[in-house]
Design goal:
heterotrimer; A alpha/beta (186); B alpha/beta (457); C alpha/beta (310); A: 186 residues; alpha/beta; 5 helices; 8 strands; globular; C: 310 residues; Rossmann fold; 2 domains; five-stranded parallel sheet; 12 helices; 9 strands; 40% helix
Chain lengths: 186, 457, 310
Amino acid sequence: MIQKAFILNDADIERILKRISHEILERNRGSKNLCFIGIQKRGVPLAQRIAKNIRALEGIEADIGKLDITFYRDDYAKRVKPKVGVTDISFGIDERDIILVDDVLFTGRTIRAALDALIDFGRPKSIQLVVLIDRGHRELPIRADYVGKNIPTALSESIEVCLSETDGQDSVSILESGKGRGQQLL
Amino acid sequence: MDDKGFLYNEKHLEFKNLVIKNARIICPGPIPEIQADIEIENGIIKSMVSDLPIGDIAQYSPIHGNEKIKTNNRRVLIDAKGMVVCPSFMDMHVHLREPGNEDEEDIESGITAALHGGITSICCMPNTKPPVDNQYLVKYILQASVKKGFKVYPVAAMTKKLEGAELTEFGLLKECGAAAFSDDGFCVQDAKLMYEIMRYAKQFDVLLILHEEDYNFSKSGIMHEGYFSAKLGLEGISSLSETVMVARDIMLAKKTKARIHFTHVSSMDCLELIRMAKEDGVSVTCDVTPHHLCFDDECLEHYGTNFKVNPPLRSKEDREALAEALNSGVIDAIASDHAPHIEYEKNTTLKEAAFGVTGMETLFAATYSELVINRKFSFQKYLSFLAQAPYKILGLKSPEIKPGNTAEFVILDLKKENLISRDFFFSKSLNSPFIGQKLTGEVMCTINNGKIGYLKI
Amino acid sequence: MLSVKNVIDIADLSVDDINLILENADTFNEVLERDLKKVPALRGKTILNLFFESSTRTRISFELAAKRLNADLINFTASSSSMKKGESIIDTIKTIQSMIVDLLIVRHSDSGVMDFISRNTGLPIINAGDGKHQHPTQALLDLYTIKKAFGDFKGLKVSIVGDIINSRVARSDMLLFKKMGMDVTLVSSSMLLPENLDYFGVNVRNNIDDIIETADVIYMLRMQLERQERKYYPSINEYNRFLSLDFKRLQSMKEGAIVMHPGPVNRGTEISEAVMNSEDTMKQKIKINEQVRNGVAARMALIYLILTTG
C-alpha cells in the first residue's frame, strides 16, 4: 500500500464541515426539524461534529443517531464482513428532515442500503446526504446533497479517511492499489 | 467369484492328489512345530514327510497365473513356503439368517464366508424366522450343510419361539442333531424358568449357550452406559445388565449342575464372577467376540452404526480385562457372533440401526492382529481359542493334522497386511466394523473335508 | 466468523465463537426493539425447520428468528413414529436435499441423527434438540440471559436443579457454562442424575437448600414426566421438599441472583404457584420470559453467522 497523495489535513476537514453546516442551515432554513444520522463507522463522528457546529450556530440540540447497514447490504456473501456495528436511533424519524452522513461516496451501494434501513425506521419528511469525499464511480443513481470535496480517482486507487475519534488523527489521502482500508469498508 | 480369487466350488479344481510343499505346521498347545510336505489323496492325509518327491515338475501347469499353485488336472501342488499351516477354526456363534432373512445371508453364503475366514465348523444360532425351535428346521439346516460338504452344528432354541416362556423339546431336538441350546439374542428373564431349563438340560446332558441381558437395564439402550454415552447423550446399557444375569445363572448352574456357556461376554465384572465359578467347580465356559477385543465405546463417538452391537462395546478397562481374561484362561474361546444385516438396517441413525456385525471373515486377522501382534500372545496359545477350545466346549474332536485323518486345515500368511475394504467380503452383508482398518494376517487357503474350500489366488 | 459450519454439540463451539454469537445477539436485540422488527440480512436464503418431534416454543422461536432476518422458512414436520412405519430417514433426507435449501434446523428424538443428516446432505445444521443429548441454542440463549444480568461469567455460581437425566438442556447448559468459566453445581436425586458425570466435571448436591443462598443463577429444569418410561421418583411431595423452588426459598436467594427455566413450567412441581405469581423485587429475579425473548435474538445471531460464514 503506497500513499500516493495527501489530500486534506485536520484544518481542511474542520473548514469543510463548517461550510457544510452552514449549507445545511441555509437549505433547511434553520435546524428545528433536523436530525443527524451517521453511517457506521466514520459517518458517526462526522455527524456528531456537524451537529456540534449547528448547536454552536443555532443553539439547538439536534438528535443524533448511528446506523449500521451490514444487514441491508446486497453483497454480504461476497466479502469479508467487518464487525457489525451498533445501530442506535432512539428518536422517531417520522416527518423529520434527516441529514445522513458518511465519509466517502463511491458506488452508492452503502447509501442505498442506508436508505432502505432508514425507511424501516419510519417515514421521514426528507433525507439529505452529506459526504466528506465524493470519489466518483457510481453504480446506482445516487448523489450527495452536500459534498466536502470531489476527488476523481482511478478504480485501482482508494481513499483513506482518518478521524481523530476512530483513528487518532484527521486526514484524507489517496492510496495506490485497490486494497486500502477505505476500499474494504465501502 | 473368480475375480476375487476364490475357489469354493470344487468343480473349478478337481483333483485326486493335493500336495502342500514346505508346510510349517503349528498346532494349538505346547506341541513342537513340524516342517513337512503334506500329501493328500482323496481327501485323506497320506503322508507328511520332508522333501516329498513330487514327480516330474514339468507336468504341473500354473493355474490362474499363480506361481505357487500348479496342477495337471488330477494333481495339485500348493507351495506354502513362508506361511503357516494350522488346524482350521471353529466359530461357535454365527447367525446364518436362513430361513427368513436370506437377503442378509443364507446357508450357502454363510459357508462361503466361513471358508474365507479359515473356518470349517460353525454353530448357527436359532433366531431365524421362524426360529429353530423344532425338529424340522434342525434337520433342514443339517441337510443343507451336508450338501455343501460343510459342518454346521445347529443350535436349537431353549424356549418356544424364543419367547422365554415354554421349554422346547430338548430330547427330540438333541436326537435329530441339535448341538446345543440357546435363546441367543434374547435372555430368559424368569429365574424359575431358567432353573427348569437348566435341570432339563442336565437331564439330557446338553450345553446351554447363554446370552445374558436383563431387559430392565438394557431397554431402549444403544451403547455402553459410561463416559461416552453421557457425552453423546445416547441411552446406555449398563454392564449390570450382563452381570446380574451371569451371577444368577452361575448360581442356578451350581445348583442344577447344568453345563452352561456364556457367549459374547463383554464386561469386567462378569469375568470375575466366571473366574470364581470356575474355581468353585461350576461347569461354566465362555467366549468373547473379536469386536469386543478390538474396540471399545469410544468408537461410537462418530455414531458409526457398524459399532452398534449387543452386548455393547464396553469401556477401555473392560476391553483390557477381556484380553487379560483370555490370557489367564477365564475366557475359553473366541467366537465371532457373525450377525449379517442388510444395508438399510445399518445406513440409518444409531438409534434406528440394527444391532450386530459380521465377523467370520475377519475373525482370524482381527484377533491375530489384536492378540498376537499387539498384545504378544504366543501364537500357539492364540490358536487354541479358535482351533481347539470351541470344539472342546461343544464336546467335539478338534481336527488334527496327521496321516490317516481327513485333511482339514488352513494356510495362513502371518505377515500380510491388508486394508479391509468392502470388496474383501464374501458374505451377503457388509456390516463389518473392520472396514477401513488395517489388519495383519491373512487366510490364504482353507482345506475343508479334504478339499480346497478357499484358495487365495 | 464462526469456526464451525454446524451447531450440533455445544462443545464444538470455541469461546471466540460463543462471544461472537453473544455480540451479534446484542445487535439483533436492538433490531427487535424497533418498530419494524426486521432486517433484510438473509433475503433469498431458505431455511428448513425439520421437526421430527413435536415442539411449539422452539419451532416458533426459530421461525421468528428466520423471518426477522428476511429468510424464507418452511416447516417440515414428521413424527418419528411415522418415520419408523415406512419412510426411512435416508429417503427423507434425499427429499430434503432435492428441495435446495441453505440451512436445516432439526429436532429429533435420536441423538446422532444430526450427524447422519449432515453427512448425507452436506448442508449446515442447527440442532434444535436431539433426544436426551443436547439443545445448543437453548444453552446459548440461557448464556445470553446470564450475560445481560451479570455482564461477565467468570466465577458465577450456577446451580441446575431437578430432572437432569432426561434433560438435554441441562447437558448443553453445563458444558457451555463450564466453558465460560462458571462454577456449575447439579442439584438432584440419584434417579434423576446420569450415572457418568465425570464427562461434565460438575459438583453434585441433593438438596436445593444447600445452594439457595449462595447461587447467582438457579436454573430450574422441567420435570420431564413424558420422558420417564418408568417412574422411579417417589412423589411430588418429596420433590417439593428437596428440589422445588417455593416462595420462601425465592426470598432467601442472594441479592441480584436470578431464576431461570427453559419452559414450560410445571407449576407446583419444580416452581411453586406463589413464585410464578410473585411481584416487584421478587419478580425481577425471575427471567423466564426474558429467556424466551432472548431466544429469538440468540437464534437470529446464530442463523446469521452460519449463513454468512464461508
